[in-house]
Amino acid sequence: MSSHVESHAHEQAPDPQGSYLLTLSLAALGVVYGDIGTSPLYALRECFHGPHAIPATPANILGVLSLVFWSLIAVISGKYLRYVLRADNQGEGGILALTALATPIKIVSRTERWPLVLLGIFGAALLYGDGMITPAISVLSAVEGLQVATPIFTPYVQPITIGILVALFLIQSHGTARVGLIFGPVTLAWFGTLAVLGIWHIFRVPGVLAAINPSYAVRFFALNQLDGYLVLGTVVLVITGGESLYVDLGHFGRRPIRTAWFAVVLPALLLNYFGQGALLLSTPEARTNPFFLLAPPWMLYPLVGLAACATVIASQAVISGAFSITKQAVQLGLLPRLTMRHTSSTESGQIYMPAVNWLLMIACILLVIGFRSSSNLAAAYGIAVISTMTITSTMFVVVTRERWHWTRLKVAAIVGVFFAIDLAFLGANLVKIEHGGWFPLLIGVLIFTMMTTWKRGRRALAGLMFAGARPLDEFLRDIATNPPLRVPGTAVFMSGSAAGVPSALTHNLKHNQVLHEKVILLTARTQQRPRVDPCDRVQVEPLACGFWRATIDFGFMEEPNVPEAMQLMSGAGLHVDPRTVTYFLGRETLIASKKVPGMALWREKLFVAMSRNAMTATNYFSLPPDRVVELGTQLEI
User: Fold this and answer.
1) Cβ 286 vs Cβ 293: under 8 Å
2) Exposed / middle / buried, residue 123 (Cβ in 10 Å: 0-12, 13-18, 19+)
3) Using an 8 Å Cβ cutoff, are 243 and 391 in contact?
4) Is the Cβ–Cβ distance between 393 and 95 less than 8 Å?
5) How far apart are CA 415 and CA 418, in angstroms?
6) What would the pLDDT profile of 485-542 be if each residue is shown by its tens digit?
7) Is 574 helix (H, G, I), strand (E, B) or coil?
8) What is the radius of gyration, based on Cα positions, of the chain?
9) What is the DSSP track for 438-499?
10) φ/ψ (deg, to 5) at 586
11) Cα–Cα distance, 474 to 584 (Å, whole number)
């Protein structure tokens, strides 16, 4: 592998410039930074008011602020923006894209490294737990601002929060293109408000800026020892949006994400956190809700409204991210095909998945009802994110060594520091497990089990299909020796493997005793890159007796459209008239048994249940329903 891989994305497309860069950077504010941008609502408060709170003494306040400052600098500015964003898979980011860079993720493969694949799958699974908690804690913490204005609203905080969340999930099926136009400006107003509120209090207590000196963080640990270390489990809340930077890399590119961070987000966040610190230094009793107490009384209701808008935008970004990562998982063979609808005629990335949407909505509502307050939810928050961040660091080591050819010394000096920070945060979060941290871990384990079961089941099914498939050479010799009746038109027999004769072809010939004049044995494959160039999408090989072998390659970020891709076959010497094509699909009815070694019966039953609820191949591959024939077979696994 060439050492130029590191700068591969730069060669793919030039960096945006001028007004286009500003437009993309503004759009990135709402999508990329919504999560981390709403952390000031609860992050600092939980250090001095949560289950593991410490006294709001001047030394502790400055120590925590120092930890906040250096966490944002080291983890977000350093790890993610300086290094991890460069580990793109043809412009795409995220834990699954990074895992695909480190090792292949395929249904049938002997080249993938299982430990890395399992780590990547678990990291992706954990993001669903984060996706459930983020909308709940963000919207709840914003609505709780009403309690600061008057205790009259206390009984209505949960109903209002649930109402906002239900409305948010209901609009998903209509798409967010129009609403998305205001995301950037609203988020810009939010960050501007954060900065102004912070500056006002910093001017009143300028000594708070001394916390930039890391010696205050060191002194904090020396004074508080174990209690000080456990506070890291709350400080991690200020960096919970870090993984979003990487997931959204493909939507905006590195430069707009970096521009938005250094020009707007980082200054606004630091000013607000230091402003909250200044307020706590002068008024320690403000620890109950330092964010909303930054504002003068006349500004409180508008601030709650703006905070609610910002948290809805942050939640929207997380929901869209859940759709995106589910789509990647389906394409990489980690989840069954799920119903997916496009909500934009121009943006292929804007999709809606009903099953994912409703599960997230139910989970968010149950979290609000079960945990009751954002402080209780904060105990459950963070452990999933920091676990995924640690897994990202692990995958990053593999990429730097094998793709970028870094020396061991360079890896240890740079990634070793990130590992140390990740492990420190992870260790401090372990005490959160009994206080609610079990929830995202439970969700992660459940989804991890589903993903690994589906992957293992598909591998077992592919093995059974391959073992029972008739050799193609033998089949073609029989056709040449005893030719069946041929009828006009083109028959496309789709199969998951390019080896052997598809079961649908065998069954069709056995029962109907005819063949079309032109027969295409077609395999659609998902590659380890996000997108496949149309010039490389189709490979065609002529066989005998009017048979052709064809493969169509799609990237894991693309939607498979077989009829559209087949039009490219004319360039390879195979002309196909879509009006005369009939698609033959095999439809397996699976029965759980103890036939597959190494796969427990309960996992086989889970795999069968997932298969029965999967989206049909007709819809998944965008086949015309009136030109599809399905031939069933029964298989024991």
Assistant:
1) yes
2) buried
3) no
4) no
5) 5
6) 888 889 999 887 767 788 888 888 888 888 888 899 998 888 877 788 888 889 998 8
7) coil
8) 27
9) HHHHHHHHHHHHHHHHHHHHHHHHHHHHHHHSPPHHHHHHHHHHS--EEEEEEEEEE-S-SS
10) -90, 135
11) 21
Question: Which residues share a beta bridge with 539?
Answer: 551
- Phi, psi for residue 356 in degrees, rounded to 5: -65, -40
Range of 251-260, 266-275, 300-309 with top mean pLDDT: 266-275
Amino acid at position 16, single letter: P
Other C-beta atoms lying within 10 Å of the C-beta of residue 496: 18
Determine how β-strand 485-494 pairs with β-strand 351-352.
Answer: unpaired
Classified as helix, coil or strand, 72 is helix
Question: Token digits for 525?
Answer: 């494959």
Q: What's the residue count for the chain? A: 637
H/E stretch holding 630: strand 628-636
Question: Closest Cα to residue 426, out of 626, 139, 232?
Answer: 232
What confidence tens digit (pLDDT) does each residue in 12-52 have? 446 677 788 888 888 888 778 888 999 999 999 989 986 67
Class of domain 18-457: mainly alpha
pTM greater than 0.70: yes
Phi, psi (rounded to 5 degrees) for 112:
-75, 150
Q: Where are the domains of the chain?
A: 18-457, 469-636
Highest mean pLDDT among 248-257, 270-279, 545-554: 270-279
State CA 488 to chain mean position distance. Answer: 47
At residue 201, the 3 state secondary structure works out as helix
For the CA atoms of 263, 265, 267, 271, what is the dihedral angle to 10 degrees? 160
